[in-house]
Write a structure and sequence with these properties.
The chain has 196 residues and is α+β, with helices and mostly antiparallel strands. It has one domain: L-fuculose-1-phosphate Aldolase (3-Layer(aba) Sandwich). Helix content is 35%, strand content 22%. The protein contains 5 helices and 10 strands, in the order αββββαβαβββαββα. An 8-stranded mixed β-sheet has the order 4-3-2-1-5-10-9-8, sandwiched between helices. The protein has a two-stranded antiparallel ribbon with strand order 6-7. Helix 2 packs parallel to helix 4. The protein is globular. It starts with a helix and ends with a helix.
């Protein structure tokens, strides 16, 4: 499977999980001369190779029709920031959006077996922090927030916005996104218990 096919499969998987409402989210994978990224406004449930743009690491489009979303510049900034990043998957879910607003300083996790799906974690007994950064419509400002908190080996949440998962490969990034979504769903469910 080519990296393009693998990226398309990851996008379709995220969309069919309901993580890309109203054409939301953007997805990319590093290439030899830049990165492939979804074009703006594309319905992620039926994305095709024609909906991917090849961009350089400054965010300029090298190949493809359509335009990249403004957030493509954040993908470019991440690839420039850390040469080990091979993939960025950005989704919008209820859990990631609401919990990023409730815990703008970061979300503490401890005791969840699924923590071990996040690269570098060996035990559920560890306490880890999912970083949350302030939101901004200015991608250079948002990138500055991310740089300030780096390293973030699995990605980060943006307040009121969603998750940016990262990984060395598409498969690792996909695992990080799925694990984070699961963990956030658990935290959201536990917050309901505390109110009952």
């Amino acid at each position: 499977m080519t990296s393009q096919d693998e990226l398309l499969a990851a996008i379709g998987w995220a969309a069919h999980n309901g993580w890309t409402p109203a054409t939301g989210g953007n997805f990319s994978a590093r290439t030899d001369n830049g990165y492939l990224v979804t074009a703006s406004g594309v319905d992620k449930t039926c994305v095709t190779a024609n909906d991917l743009l090849l961009c350089n690491l400054d965010g300029g489009v090298l190949e493809g029709d359509g335009k990249p979303s403004a957030e493509s510049d954040l993908h470019a900034a991440l690839y420039r920031l850390d040469p080990t990043i091979g993939c960025v998957l950005h989704s919008h879910t209820v859990a990631s959006t609401t919990l990023s607003r409730r815990f703008p300083e970061g979300i503490e996790l401890s005791g969840f077996e699924m923590q071990k799906a996040l690269q570098g974690n060996q035990t559920h007994a560890a306490t880890i922090n999912l970083p949350v950064v302030p939101n901004s419509q200015d991608m250079s400002e948002l990138a500055d927030h991310v740089r300030t908190g780096w390293p973030m080996p699995w990605g980060f949440l943006v307040v009121g916005h969603g998750i940016y998962a990262v990984g060395n490969t598409i498969a690792e990034c996909r695992r990080h996104l799925e694990a984070i979504e699961f963990l956030l769903a658990c935290v959201l469910e536990e917050s309901r218990w505390s109110k009952s």
